[in-house]
C-alpha cells in the first residue's frame, strides 16, 4: 500500500489527451521538472475493468498561481507508463 508523500497531491485532471494531462495544484512546480502521475482509467475508456496506471512525465507548462487561492495550472507531457498496477489504491 502506498501512502501520500511530501510533495504529493491528489487532484482531478482538467484536460487529458494521449500525450499529456493538465491539472490544478497548490504545489510549486517548474517547467522541465520530472513528475510521476497516477491516473485511474475508467472502464468506458480502457474497455476493460477500471485500471490505475503510473505515468512518468515532464512539466511543460505552468500557469501562474492565482494569489487568492494559491492554485497553479500545470501541463505535463506523458512520456511513458507502467501497465495496470495491481494493488495500487485508486486515487481519492
Poorly predicted sequence stretches spanning 5 or more consecutive residues: 1-5
**What is the number of helical segments per DSSP (H or I, 4+ residues)?**
1
Strand content: over 45%
Distance between the termini: 14 Å
* Percent of residues in helices: under 10%
**DSSP E strands, number:** 5
Largest sheet properties:
5 strands, antiparallel
- The radius of gyration over CA amounts to 14 Å
Tell the overall outline: globular
Average pLDDT, to the nearest integer? 82
User: What class would the helix/strand composition place it in?
Assistant: mainly beta
Present the secondary structure layout.
Blueprint: E1 13-16, E2 20-25, E3 34-41, H1 43-46, E4 51-66, E5 71-82
Antiparallel strand pairs: 1-2, 2-5, 3-4, 4-5
3D architecture notes:
Helices cover 4% and strands 50% of the residues. The protein has 92 residues and is mainly beta. It has one domain (13-82). The protein has a 5-stranded antiparallel sheet. Strand 4 (51-66) and strand 5 form a beta hairpin. Residues 1-5 have low confidence and may be disordered.
Write a compact overview of the structure shown.
With 92 residues, the chain is mostly beta strands. 4% of the residues lie in helices and 50% in strands.
